[in-house]
Design brief:
This protein is of the alpha/beta class and about 150 residues long. About 15% of the residues lie in helices and about 30% in strands. β2 (about 45-50) and β3 form a beta hairpin.
Length: about 150
C-alpha cells in the first residue's frame, strides 16, 4: 500500500520551518560536527521540485492551496516537464470546468524544461488536479494539487 502525503503549504508553515532550520543550523554549528549527508530539498511556499537529486519524482508529491494561488515547479534536474492536459496521459485528471495546462506549447509533449528553470500556473477552479511529467509517466512521476475554496 502506498502512502501519499498531502502538504498544506502556508506562510505560517514555511516560517515555522525556517525558524526550526535556523535553530538546528545554529545548534549544529555549536557541536562542531558534520555528517556530510545531503539535507532535504527546501521549497518555497507553493513550490514543487521536479527531479530533486536527479530522481524522477515531484517533491512534494501532493500540495494543497486555496483558489487563486499559484504553484511554481522548479526543475532541479534535466529531462522533465509538467502536464495537466488529459490528452497527454491517462493518469492526468482535472476538475470539470478547469483549463488544462502544460509547461510546453502545442503537441510537443517531450519538450523539456532546462535545469534551474521554473514553470508556474495559477489555479482558478477548485478540485483535485493530477499532473505528470510526460517523459516519466511510466515510472510514476505524477503529482497532485488540491485546490480548495
Amino acid at each position: 500500500m502506498l502512502f501519499e502525503e498531502t502538504v498544506m503549504v502556508t506562510r505560517r508553515s514555511v516560517l515555522l520551518r525556517m525558524g526550526a532550520l535556523g535553530t538546528v543550523a545554529t545548534g549544529a554549528g555549536c557541536l562542531g560536527t558534520s555528517s556530510g549527508d545531503k539535507t532535504p530539498t527546501e521549497t518555497e511556499a507553493n513550490e514543487v521540485i521536479a527531479g530533486p537529486n536527479g530522481n524522477p519524482v515531484f517533491d512534494p508529491k501532493s500540495i494543497e492551496i486555496p483558489v487563486g494561488e499559484t504553484v511554481t515547479w522548479r526543475f532541479e534536474s534535466t529531462g522533465h516537464n509538467v502536464s495537466a492536459r488529459p490528452k497527454d496521459g491517462s493518469d492526468v485528471m482535472i476538475p470539470d470546468g478547469a483549463t488544462p495546462f502544460a509547461s510546453f506549447e502545442g503537441d510537443n509533449t517531450y519538450e523539456l524544461i532546462p535545469k534551474g528553470e521554473t514553470y508556474s500556473h495559477t489555479f482558478e477552479t477548485a478540485g483535485t488536479y493530477t499532473y505528470v511529467c510526460v517523459p516519466h509517466i511510466n515510472v510514476g512521476m505524477i503529482g497532485n494539487v488540491t485546490v480548495s475554496e
